[in-house]
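Predict structure. Chain length: 448.
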Amino acid sequence: MTASRKPRPFPNEQKLRLWRVGWALTLTFAAAVLAAGGTLYGLVVLLDFQKIDTTAKLDAKTLFDLVKLSFGVVAGAGALVALVVAYRRQRVDEAGAHREATRLHTERFSQAVDKLGSDSPAVRLGGVHALAGLADDAPDNSLRQTCIDVLCAYLQLPFTPDPGTDPAHQEEHHRYLAFRKVRHTILRLIGDHYRRPKGTHRSWQDCDLDLTGVTIDGDMDFRGATFADGEVHFDSATFSGGDVSFHGATFSGGTVSFSNATFSGGDVSFHGATFSGGDVSFSNATFSDGDVYFSYATFSGGDVYFGYATFSGGDVSFYGATFSDGDVDFNRTTFSGGDVPFTEATFSGGDVYFGYATFSGGDVHFGSATFSGGDVSFDSATFSDGDVYFGYATFSGGDVSFDSATFSGGDVSFDSSTGPAPQGLLAAVGTPPPAGVTLLSAWLLTAP
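Prediction complete.
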């Protein structure tokens, strides 16, 4: 976790803060007198009494009423004292129960951590489930966060790689598989708890998650999760196998970071995810293999940053994605291999920036994409190899700019697109266009 992180209070956390008895009684009596006086005055006004009827002598009935009033005042004072004492006793009992719960939690926590250090994979599995259960039952949020931090720290520990299936290493191979089961169980439990709606029992959505440098080679399911608070870090993590799903997840606040992460295998899906707030960063990430899906994702707010990322292999799909608000930044991104389709994507608002990006290999397709609003910039981008396809794209609004872009190789096609030529495109391409660059004939007629 980041060094500046401060634990957030648990909603039901109780802190024992009691006033001195004298102050408590004084304030209680004062509040009672004010309440009684206010009530009496309100009744006098409501009943429209003009004046108080006074008599010169004290009769028996009046004396009896005064005695009853005196006893009533004494009884009321006693009731107030009893109320203050009962309140203080309740607060002390709650604080004591909280301390006892914390003590029991600490004992169970120590036992669970001891199990994580066992040489037996089965015992470690027991420790993992015990820690997850402790996080669910934690009496306050700081203790819950501690349990989650320990599970994350276990995943961050170095582990011996698979020695292979050679008969000479069969025992080591089986041991590797057993301990990998422990790691995969932690990944599954984290995903299960983050999928639970925020505020419900066993939900971890308002907690921090630090998986910095972790190797994720198993399944992890965040489908439908909401990231609205806290910090979730996959910085420098390696996604090398399994299925990691953020399908339909909502990123509406907080920080989710994949900076310097490596996507080298398996499937990572953000299909249908909504990016509406907060910061989501893929800066310096490397997409070298496997499939990463942002298909039909909605970018409607917040900042999503792919700056300096490298797309060198595999498939990274933005098929049908909607860019309607917020900032999506591909600044200085390198597209050197693999397939990155923005096919049928809609750019209707916000800022999408490919400035200084390098298209040097692979296929990047904006076919049938719609540019109807917002700012989409390819300023100073370099097209030197590979296929970049804008065929059948619609340029109907917003600002699409290719100012100072360089076209030195590869195939760049605007075949069958509609609308006016993007700003700066004709000047950047030159007349006549170089080999491999296909522009609309109508655009060429307007070239200077």
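Summary: Residues 6-16 have pLDDT under 50 and may be disordered.
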